[in-house]
Design a protein that fits this description.
67 residues; mainly alpha; globular
């Protein structure tokens, strides 16, 4: 699984979020990222962009972002 790109300007502004992602933790809820917890390719892609865990993705985008 691809790690989020941590050289984005947003992570320069939020160093604490960057540090959490580097520790394989969600930058929103700080839970440990489990590689098998993502339910589909869209969720994996979102993780590679934001570092968000599946639970936070569901809360932010809704349980069914495709439909």
């Amino acid at each position: 699984m691809k790690m989020p790109n941590l050289i984005k300007p947003i992570f320069t502004l939020f160093q604490d979020k960057k540090n959490l992602i580097q520790e394989r933790k969600c930058p929103e809820c700080e839970s440990k990222i489990l590689l098998d917890s993502f339910k589909d390719e869209i969720s994996i892609t979102e993780y590679s962009i934001s570092g968000l865990c599946q639970t936070c993705q569901d809360e932010i985008f809704g349980d069914d972002i495709c439909g």
